[in-house]
Design goal:
Layout: H1 6-16, H2 23-30, E1 35-41, E2 44-51, E3 60-62, H3 66-73, E4 82-85, H4 86-100, E5 104-113, E6 126-128, H5 134-139, H6 152-157, E7 161-166, E8 169-179, E9 183-190, H7 199-213, E10 217-223, H8 227-236, E11 239-249
Parallel strand pairs: 9-10
Antiparallel strand pairs: 1-2, 2-3, 4-11, 5-10, 5-11, 6-7, 7-8, 8-9
Helix pairs in contact: 1-2, 3-4, 7-8
Amino acid sequence: MTKLTPQECRVLSDVLGDTPMTVISAARLKHAVCDAYVGGTLPDITAALIFDPFCPDEPCGFGTDADALWQLLKATDGWSCINVNTSCATSLGALIEADRDTAIRYYGDVYHALLKPVHCYPNEAVRLLTPEDVTRLAKAPAEVQGNGYKTHAAMVTDGIAAGTIVDNNIVAIAHTYAENNLHTDIGVSTIEAWREKGFATAAAALVAQEIQARGKVPVWSCGEDNIASLRVAQKLGFTEVGRRTYVIPISPE
């Protein structure tokens, strides 16, 4: 099995298309910043496996041929689970279970799109970040530094980021995580001590507003039991548009 070349990654990006459920993988492929493998020959493939460098142990699989996906996955290392089309999740799980003699659990991944103007929640502590905030970002706790870009500078210049600043420190952040021609994925994080104060909602609203101003559709994804994230998506006006499933081998204790 051979890793795709940058040119082949861009071909695969076109094959996946630009949808809420492909935006992250398609964007990484478009910029050739991921490891990707396929079953079959481009563009007529049976399966695809994409490793996002910002979440390398949770690859995304595309295609509904569970056996083809497992052939790709078992030839790679470093993964702890795989995110796939829900229709093939249980079949893939059964193959992994039989091959690796391990139990499997399944976890839903919910995708939303903002199909109407975002609901805004102004907050005097929340604003868009600029290049002048790069040093502040670098000094912030890792959980609120954001990711999806090679540098903090790229995140605030090539992407869009908004932060909650308290006593000159960033305590919450929302930012574009991946961007394609039609859709842009948003990531958010808040330091635990500052949660439940509306900071993530206010910051995400600013980012979504900027995305819409650029003519693109904001995308929001989170786990099926992430009540806090689901609540923020609802407050901002996002609509659920689909689900995928994590297939997760359970390590023996």
